[in-house]
Amino acid sequence: MGIIVQRLCCVLLSCLVGQSVLAAQLVKVGAYNFPPYVIQAESEQPQGLLPDVLAALNQQQSDYRFELVPTSVTRRYRDFQNARFDIMLFESPAWGWQDIPMSTLDLHVEDAEIYVAKAEPGRGQEFFAQFKGKRLALYSGYHYGFANFNADPEYLAREYNARLSYSHESNLLMVQRGRADITIVSRSYLHSFEKMFPEQRGQFLLSSKADQIYRHEALLRPQAPITSGTLGAVVQQLRGNGQLAKLYQQYQLNPTKPGAKH
Fold first, then answer.
1. pTM score, two decimals?
2. What is the second-level CATH architecture of the domain 112-213?
């Protein structure tokens, strides 16, 4: 009799768990390689801030199940419009999204892109005053402030003598080895790079002026299964219990106060 009761309890528990899973609304979140926010987006276990935030969101509540969907830096616009995923997190509407219908949500976190050159005796901030005659190492598909957010590879190569890659690490090492004069990376990525390669600390000259300072936002399709207001309430739960601030601190990001200007 005891065995029968145990089996019935297991069946009932399985049904309840199944109903809970079915009740959760799936929200697909687009992700492309953007370290330290997303690292190896197409791998079985992507790393970075975004996967960590999605795991925390799924653990925090059961109404929505946030699932990472890999895309690419250039394909993300088409995938968004074709409903391959529903939202993008840690994006900026200025990065090529201007003509695409969407709603947005301020995530209240700030990052900046800075210029990086090789540290050499006598070289100072004046080195970043102009790019004429210099070789730039840039990330293909990224939008840079100095180029008025024009990410066209031919334009960048023609106007700025840019060499494009798909690796911030490679770009920094090109600068360190004298194969490029300047690269541009986020402050948060530079922190990650120095953790991976502590011997490189002090090898680079960092600009005091940023190429761009941005407040990250969430971008949502008009037909997304979650509204910006509801997403804001879910994210606020993580902010309220301190988990979001802890993750931002882990990745060297600066939280901003609601209502602060971009």
1. 0.84
2. 3-Layer(aba) Sandwich (3.40)
